[in-house]
Amino acid sequence: MAGEGERTPAVSRAIRVLALLEKAGGTPQGVSEMARQLSVARSSLFNICLTLEADGLITRSGNGYRLGRRLVELGGAYLRTDDPVQAFYQACNETPLLHDEICQLAVLDGTEVLYLAAHAGRMPLRMTASIGSRFPASITAVGNALLARLDDDEIRRRFADPATRPAWTDRSVTDLDALVEKIRTVRRRGHGRDLGEVFPGVRGLAVTVAPQYSGEQAYALGTSLMQERCDDEIETRAVEALQAMAARIANPMNLAADGGGRD
């Protein structure tokens, strides 16, 4: 058995191939080009690709490879066993104030947020993240809510590179000092808020979901509302609804106990 910290080279290279194809965004990648980018021998990478292809993790497309459908099955299996994800969907459907709105469940991954679940609602707004999407944590409400769990020094360390603080709109906070101050405000206020930093005219709100177990990664629960119909009173009600949903997601037993949120 490999000791802690040891990695099997072939497995490590296979993971790097999958990550490279993910970054390619569906554009097929040839073996020679992948070998060049990963700095490995073409013959070695060719054998890895054959193995991944045989297991359905990647598939041939023209003269290259792209991600395979087997990854969808594996991702679905993960989501089906992740209690917070299942609890999220149930809570969305049973919360009158938000069940018609866009809601998301996300985790922090470095300087980005990874979306694990998305509830589309019934409203016309469709500018939102889908399952598996990654957005900058610096400008998203869910990202800000999760960053509030870190101290200022850690935030400065993670976001030292300006590339981690992109401007998606003219309201996006890109200055490091301004980001630190914004997260301090999130800590005082108790919830994350995005006022048009990701999409113009959209107000994002988010709260954290308390981990069920010690050492478990924290989640953030967010919603996206049209700014034109979201005043401070509606924000307060939406945050209260998110907090109630977060409490139920943190302890799925509550889903059966109270029969859903209240408007």
Automatic annotation (TrEMBL):
Annotated IclR-ED domain residues: 70-255
Q: Where is the HTH iclR-type domain?
A: 8-69
What's in the keyword line of the UniProt record?
DNA-binding, Transcription, Transcription regulation
* UniProt-listed PROSITE patterns: HTH_ICLR, ICLR_ED
Q: Name one Pfam family in it.
A: IclR_C
Q: Could you mention a single GO BP entry for this protein? A: negative regulation of DNA-templated transcription
List the protein's name: HTH-type transcriptional repressor AllR
Q: Which GO terms describe its molecular function?
A: DNA binding; DNA-binding transcription factor activity
Q: Which Gene3D superfamilies match?
A: 3.30.450.40, Winged helix-like DNA-binding domain superfamily/Winged helix DNA-binding domain
Give the source lineage, highest ranks first. Answer: Bacteria, Pseudomonadati, Pseudomonadota, Gammaproteobacteria, Oceanospirillales
Q: Which InterPro entries match?
A: GAF-like_dom_sf, HTH_MetabolicPath_Reg, Tscrpt_reg_IclR_C, Tscrpt_reg_IclR_N, WH-like_DNA-bd_sf, WH_DNA-bd_sf
